[in-house]
Amino acid sequence: MAETLLKIANLSVNYGAIKAVRGIDFVVNRGEIVTLIGANGAGKSTILRTISGLEKVTDGTVIFNNQIVNHMPSEKRVRHGIVQVPEGRRVFPGMTVQENLQLGAFTVSNKSQNNSGYDTVYQQFPILKDRRNQDAATLSGGEQQMLAIGRALMAQPKMILLDEPSMGLAPLYIQKIFDIIQKIRDTGVTVLLIEQNANQALKIADRGYVLEGGKIIATGTGDELLSSSDVREAYLGG
Amino acid sequence: MDKAHIKYTLSWATLALMIVILIVVMTMFDIIGPYGLTTIVLIGINLIAAIGLNLIIGMSGQFSLGHAGFMAIGAYATALIVTAVPTIFGFIMSLFVGAMLSGIVALIVGIPTLRLRGDYLAIATLGVSEIIRILIMNFKFTHGPAGIFAIPSFVNWPLVFGMAVLTIIVVVNLVRSPTGRAIIAVRDNEIAAESLGINTTKYKVIAFVLGAVLAALAGGLRASFIQSVSPQDFTFMQSITILIIVVLGGIGSISGTVVTAIALGILDVILQNFGSLRMVIYAVVLIVVMLFRPQGLFGRSEFSLKKMLFDSGGNHDKDHSKGA
Q1: Closest chain A residue to B195 measured between Cα atoms?
Q2: How far is A152 from chain B (nearest CA, A)?
Q3: Would residue B324 count as lying in a domain?
Q4: Residue A192 contacts B, CB cutoff 8 Å
Q5: Total structural domains in chain B?
Q6: A124/A133 Cα distance (integer angstroms)
Q7: How many structural domains are present in chain A?
């Protein structure tokens, strides 16, 4: 049996009167790619933001690495190994690629670990190495997404949370990003992926959960969900 | 790398030294009289305060209208301590005490208020500044609305010049340190910064406290130089005066603040001859600059001796061609 890294139990999150997430349960095992799919407003991003500590838990528990992290501030969660790549890339303009990566390693004080972080990221994303002295704002959308992912990896996470990494990218880059996600998993980092591009996400995912109206309505391996007629009809365009 | 670093550190030092020599020579030939030296001191004091405010507004992106309050704390600390201990030691002590006090007040005020954004923060800081002023006006030991007179003076232009240079060095180094990067990251994208493990409130508070400390330093220097303080010196208009320097120079640009502080100081002198027209001309200058350069004179960029003197131009172009 695989080892559980993240366990979500009966999680609810409200924004004032609006119930964005209504009592969901799921687990992510070490070394897996797990994807949450669903339409706009299904609660995917809210779940991710709650796991990374940007949103408060209304009810239920978030257990990471056998520790309840409900009330842990987000900067501490980064030190514990949960790093989120926020939606829409959000690189720091006016700073170079290298400086952006440097900020990613903000929680890593060990210098040699830090240097090996650069090596790993530059190996994974050779384009970033070529552009390391360039202003991050001058990168293309796909390159900025790579930088955002690379920056998250600099923190040496146990688990990386990806919020719509393929959003707004050229098809060529979308394929590249999904390849990269698999490579990241192969280096031992667990991945929790949120995608509107459900087809692609399920292809690379070990397991997936389908969300609707803040609840999980289906679960299974990536292939099972891909071939499920309900899911196909609702999210994959028949 | 290190050799180059020494090279342009030296060239900055040379520049500072040249300005000092220029001022000394001009004084010797009576081009700068006592009035000119007073102007230089006031420019230096405004410069220190404005760099402090730029740290808050420009670097950490928090809009504060409370700078006068922190200047008042520094000014009154110096006024009271130097009157009691009229020695150079007392003066240095007073600057320290003022800076400490101001920093503590900023810390207490900053932790709750820096969670506010934009206009709300501006209103909260304005309120704090007014509270400080009204407290000073009503306390016995601050001599109420009359203020304190005949404060011994320990301030001359070399001291203020040195302090201003020191302030610039400290702030520029801070901005380039990991702490400074974190402050800028919080400004540019709070969510991204938070998701990287940066404690956003902490870095906003650091910038706010340092800005308040510099304001107190400027206030202390001013109290001893003008030799009097009163609550009327630290109204909302004082915050605005400093704010104008920061906005006009470019929010986030230290060089912009330096150039604007000097330019406005000189403009002030020139406009003395125009009597009451002075404020009108001053306002027109502001409007014109904001119309044609809304990002301020320097925007967010910095004046760089490195680029002027050492860059052959090759390095830069190479980087850009790669990007294309």
Answers
A1: A84
A2: 7
A3: no
A4: no
A5: 1
A6: 17
A7: 1
Instruction: Tell me which residue range forms the domain holding A172.
Output: 4-235
Touching A: B residues 221-250, CB under 8 Å = none
- Prediction pTM value: 0.83
Which tens digits make up the pLDDT trace of A59-82? 999 999 999 999 998 889 999 999
User: In chain A, which among 40-99 make CB contacts under 8 A with chain B?
Assistant: 52, 54, 73-79, 83-86, 90-95, 99
CB A25 within 8 A of CB A12: no
Among A146, A152, A110, which Cα is nearest to A130's?
A146
Could you tell me the CATH number of the domain that includes residue A202? 3.40.50.300
Interface contact flag, B197 A75, Cβ < 8 Å: yes
State which H helix or E strand residue A7 sits in.
Answer: strand A4-15
Residue of B nearest to A148 (CA): B192
Give the angle subtended at the CA of B227 by the CAs of B264 and B41, to the nearest 5°.
30
Would the ipTM clear 0.90, i.e. be above it?
Answer: no
**Domain containing residue B175: CATH number:** 1.10.3470
Q: How do beta strands A190-195 and A159-163 pair?
A: parallel
A59-64 and A4-15 beta bridge pairing: antiparallel
